[in-house]
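Subject: Re: docking follow-up (nicotinamide-adenine-dinucleotide)

Dear J.,

Thanks for your patience while I sorted out the input files. As discussed at Tuesday's group meeting, I've set up the holo structure prediction with nicotinamide-adenine-dinucleotide included as the bound ligand rather than trying to dock it afterwards. The sequence and the ligand SMILES I used are pasted below, so you can double-check that they match what you have on your end before we go further.
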Amino acid sequence: MNNLLAGKRGIIFGALDENSIAWKVALKAHEQGAKFTLTNAPVALRLGEINKLAEQCGTVVIPADATLTEDLEKLITQSVEQLGGKLDFVLHSIGMSPNVRKGKAYTDLNYEWFNKTVDISAISLHKLLQTCHKLDAINDWGSVLTLSYIAGQKAFPGYGDMADAKAMLESIVRSFGLYYGNSKKVRINAISQSPTKTTAGTGIKGFGSFFEFAEKMSPLGNAPAEDCANYCITLFSDYTRFVTMQTLYHDGGFSNMGVSEAIMQVFDTEK
Ligand SMILES: NC(=O)c1ccc[n+]([C@@H]2O[C@H](COP(=O)([O-])OP(=O)(O)OC[C@H]3O[C@@H](n4cnc5c(N)ncnc54)[C@H](O)[C@@H]3O)[C@@H](O)[C@H]2O)c1
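The structure tokens for the complex came back this morning:
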């Protein structure tokens, strides 16, 4: 299907390099006729990779630290100007935990870093939504998406304080979904994605085992980033107008499994 996003304007957060989920969403959104700006934290922009993406998508990069409301205000105002009208979609594809990155165990968290984890990975969504709401920057029936992981709902070793951030993120999706839905018919959802080989993903201790376990547990196997991007496009499109306040699993069936035959075979005592 083509031109699913024709005439739509948006902002895409979180494209760091070509493995990033946001990178793939940007390419698909461009393919489907959307106009959008790209953004990332100033420190991430120094890598310079995102400029290649901007060139491919015929757009600009506007730096913004998603934890700073003044940066968000500038980003949103400049994006509306640059794109020639209010927004129809926003992708929030942001996550980082200093505790996870520095190998701090969940039972020995540095609380200053914990605050950072939650600020970057969850509260930034609230800040983004609140700023858009105040500036009235999103058109009626607009769609905001964020990326989550099942560790926000069930316990997984090694995911550390990111699990708490994801639980909060999914709660913000519901709470802001209520207010923004009432006032402007804006819909807000989280996609809970399979383990994916990106900078954020592979930074988790034991990522390789998570990845292989989920692959063997899921009837369809792990959902690739490319397909996650396709799913995002459908959720930005007009074909999903009444979907809001949800955590939507894009995980090959993992979240509804008890145990799979492939995992049973690993523990087969009758061999
Ligand atoms: N990779 C996985 O296994 C997986 C699985 C489920 C969900 N997710 C989620 O998907 C989202 C995207 O991650 P990814 O896997 O594409 O990895 P990624 O590392 O490519 O993307 C994470 C992005 O967050 C950005 N970021 C960090 N701090 C920021 C700040 N202060 N302001 C603005 N941007 C900031 C980074 O620069 C980077 O672009 C994250 O929320 C992640 O938790 C990832």
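A couple of observations from a first look. DSSP finds eleven helices and six strands in the chain. The CA atoms of residues 218 and 256 lie 9 Å apart.

Let me know if you'd like me to rerun anything.

Best regards,
T.
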